[in-house]
């Protein structure tokens, strides 16, 4: 009769496979605050470009500024349906620092930047910036 059980080599192989799989999962999962900040920076860049286009189309100057609860676009015509630009961050803890950003109506605007960070990770900042000609883009360093 043959003894039942696993050999030491089989056990080591299983432990190694589980270790490699756990490491792969750990590297695949990013920090939630890190990815939230990335998403909010991309979202803000798109919103600023949308407001810039609306300013040029309407001929009215539009200004973006941060508030305690989020941000506000001033100068856009009032809209009663769902096409109005939002005024809050989707993620909790996002903060912005900037002078008011002037978005038009001229095709060329002054170089401008907005610094974003998460309250949970204040040491990491992203910048949403433009040189005045190109669209707003997310940068990891100060412009």
TrEMBL record:
Matches recorded under InterPro entries: N_methyl_site (IPR012902), Pilin-like (IPR045584), T2SS_protein-GspH (IPR002416)
Which NCBIfam families has this protein been placed in?
A: IV_pilin_GFxxxE
Q: Which SUPFAM superfamilies match?
A: Pili subunits
Topological category with respect to the lipid bilayer = Single-pass membrane protein
Compartments (UniProt record): Membrane
Alphabetically ordered keywords of this record: Membrane, Methylation, Transmembrane, Transmembrane helix
Q: Which residues form a coiled coil?
A: none
Please identify the protein, giving its name as recorded: General secretion pathway protein H
